[in-house]
Design brief:
- The protein is built from 14 helices and 13 strands.
- About 35% of the residues lie in helices and about 15% in strands.
- The protein has one domain: Aldolase class I (TIM Barrel, Alpha-Beta Barrel), CATH 3.20.20.
- The strands form three sheets. It has an eight-stranded parallel β-barrel with strand order 3-4-6-9-10-11-12-13, surrounded by seven helices. Strands 1-2 form a two-stranded antiparallel ribbon. A two-stranded parallel sheet has the order 7-8.
- The protein is of the alpha/beta class.
Length: about 375
Amino acid sequence: MVVWSPFRFNSGQQAANRFAMAPLTDASHQDGTVTEHELEFVRRRAASGFGLTVSSAAYVENDGRSWQGIGAAHQGHLSSLQRLADAMRAAGGLAILQIYDGGRIARPELTGQRLRAPSAVASLRPGASTPRAMTADEIDGLIASFRRAASLARQAGFDGVEIHGANHYAIHQFFSPRANHRDDKWGGTLAKRMNFPLAVAQAVRDALGPKLIAGFRVTPLESEPGGYTLDDAKLLCNELARLNLDYVSVSLDDYRNSRPVGETRVYNGPPEKTYTPPENPVTAFARVIAGRSAVMASGGIKTCKDAEGALEKGADLVAVGRAVVVDPEWLAKVRSRNETSILAGLPKQEAEIAGTLSIPPRMVDYLLSRPGWIPRL
């Protein structure tokens, strides 16, 4: 089966199979260094044989922290990143560091600063405050911060970096006509709204050099009124492929449909979108990218058949998230064709979740705060 076959990236790096562990967990110390809980969470799941493992998102500037997660913002984070890379690569798979900036959905209680974003437009999230518009110098500085984070990843021993350009974080905000009302080179027309994502991608590619993996995660459309469309995102992905990126990851709740995660983060409510694209986003991106970069699908992958279905839609790689939260040995069971033994949900007793499944306590709290997102036994 193709899902178990190796995959060679543009960089020359090779994944042993098409399965990627999606970026998960939010556990770190206050200073952004990795905790033992996080290392155990990653180490146990990576051990089942993923071709590549993508880390939880690391902030590139303190002002852009959206949760108490790991950092890749300065040299003081290097030893923490080295420990994480070692844990992710312990079973032989490739280790990818995801990097992000929160923009207008950062948390001031973590940053100590007023929110900054492309424009002074508040998020749709309940209780969101209005950010200040970033200056041109700050935008240049943020691009440099992404470059520095990629350099730290290279020094730490990661096999590559995934740029988090999805899920309403800062890079997504620059691309969104709802969040970006600028009239300079960073906003206005669609072409100008692409400038920041492309500048970050080029900076990361340059920092990594040609032999490490550079990926970019994108939300394929905005469900909110006035948001960007799938056609807009296809144009962005076409330009990203020109930069010799190794893969584009399509962020969806389920790869079979066209419903992305809305800005309000309502996972199981009624669909928020007013726009339905004519084709599946994974298929659309695969056609536009046309083999210049790999396409990674995510969402709704619970079985080997699910993964094969994603490849049939045009994906080269599949990222697995919720299934490996519930069952750390998910991939090993899939490989051995023992899918009937896969755990169907989190333990009924809350006290068992962290210990039995090696889930950091703060992540347990997060999972339980979203009823229905991950099933309970």
